Amino acid sequence: MAQPKRNNNGSKALEITMCDVLDALEESASYFGYQPGLDDMEILSIEAPAPDPYLQRATPATVHPLPGAERSADIVAYLMRRESAA
Questions:
Q1: pLDDT along the chain (86 residues), means of 10
Q2: What pTM was estimated for this model as a whole?
Q3: Are residues 71 and 78 in contact, defined by beta-carbon separation less than 8 angstroms?
């Protein structure tokens, strides 16, 4: 005996509706999952950071001025003098 013919139009519409529902559930779960919950966080203490032992041992570098390297407030005048000296 032959199987009765099924109406697939309703099942396709249901499948599309269920896909939309699952997408919306996934979106809402992601939205609520990434919301900060400040009531869940407890501040234990606020303290100054401990000093870094490596930074305390570092000595500053010595800066040696270069001879003939003069600075001018007017960069154009400085460049003109440099070009004329060369």
A1: 60 90 93 75 81 74 70 74 83
A2: 0.33
A3: yes
